[in-house]
UniProtKB/TrEMBL annotation:
Lineage per the UniProt record: Bacteria, Bacillati, Bacillota, Bacilli, Bacillales
Protein name: Proline hydroxylase
Keywords on record: Dioxygenase, Iron, Metal-binding, Oxidoreductase, Vitamin C
Cofactor(s) the record lists: L-ascorbate
Domain Fe2OG dioxygenase positions: 117-220
Pfam families, A to Z: 2OG-FeII_Oxy_3
PANTHER family reported in the protein's UniProt record: PROLYL 4-HYDROXYLASE ALPHA SUBUNIT, TRANSMEMBRANE PROLYL 4-HYDROXYLASE
Originating organism: Brevibacillus aydinogluensis
Annotated SMART domains: P4Hc
GO terms for MF: iron ion binding; L-ascorbic acid binding; procollagen-proline 4-dioxygenase activity
Amino acid sequence: MQVRYLNLFRIAVVRDMSDEISILPIQSFYSLNDCVVAAELLNKVPLVMRFEPVLSDDECQQLIEAAASRLKESRLVNKVVSQIRSSRGMFFEEEENPLIRRIERRISELMNVPIEHAEGLQVLHYAPGQEYKAHHDFFRPNTPSAKNNRISTLVIYLNDVEEGGETVFPLLRLSVKPKRGSAVYFEYFYRDQALNDLTLHSSVPVVRGEKWVATQWMRRQRVRSLGLIPNPA
Ligand SMILES: O=C(O)CCC(=O)C(=O)O
Ligand SMILES: [Fe+2]
């Protein structure tokens, strides 16, 4: 396996036998600045992994509490109320407080993409019966947003769901059960668009209980103008 760096994106890429590259080197654990995350490989190309733990119970609870009063009906990029997502959601501002800054830094290190490429962290809440129908996270080619398209996603589960609410990848025959603090990761930065298309996914309806997730999307080019604010720690 050969690792090289693409200067343009400053993303470490790993070339595998199929001659496709992945953003994240496949490892069984990742030693980050402030924690160690265990990883389970769910699918190699396109790469889908499960991570645990990404957030502590306390961090999950704090995110839920900070997001709860700011939830809005889910709207798509063009501000139209979504027909495919019945959950409610919100976005945190970039580095809006020390908790968000710490979590964003950890996620960026884990996803192996500079923080300047990170959209604001999104939180979604699903009540019983609510779902997110099958979709891709990248924007369709030739749309304005596709000029700086998304390349990878991390969905962090902020609570345990009593029944339902799994993240399902129908074309890969994968189903990931929400577990507080764990996450599912996938990338769609392949030259072969057919591989990207395989990352179609949904959040099936919550049957009992509720579901909270935090989603981080990474872009091909920077979306944040500011660099890192020096870490006081
Ligand atoms: O809630 C989930 O399991 C998936 C969320 C999702 O697909 C997204 O935020 O793009
Ligand atoms: Fe998604």
